[in-house]
Amino acid sequence: MITEPGFVDDYLAYLLARASHLISSEFHAVVEASGLSLMEWRVMASLSGKDSLSINELASIVLAKQPTVTKLVGRMQDAGWVKRCDAAHDKRQSLVSLTAAGRRKVQPLLKQAKAHEAQVVSALGADPAHQLKVMLERLIATHTSRGDC
Q: For residue 147, is pLDDT > 60?
């Protein structure tokens, strides 16, 4: 019996979500074992390699609402992992950066995340994996510029 593919079998949004869920789920246990929540990991990974980001920028990157990120950053500041200061150009805007303790906490996870990524894309090969990232970045940029994200 030959069956026709279902709608989601070839629907881009579903395929992206499914791939993200499967790949991310594999790494979630590593994050949780380190003592971080997934949102704390996302914030710390987003701040890694940056001087600072605003709460709004962080909210956009970690795919969360601004009030949620504000509360999370407050808890992370209490833990000593991040610091928050007023932006020089706008005292209403908070800038967040990793502390030395935050960098020490997240550094091993960044290495493990890169190793996990290498394992995930090894089945694709280096060039197709690079092309996939380029296409996803282009897709994100196109929809971000339209205000869809």
A: no
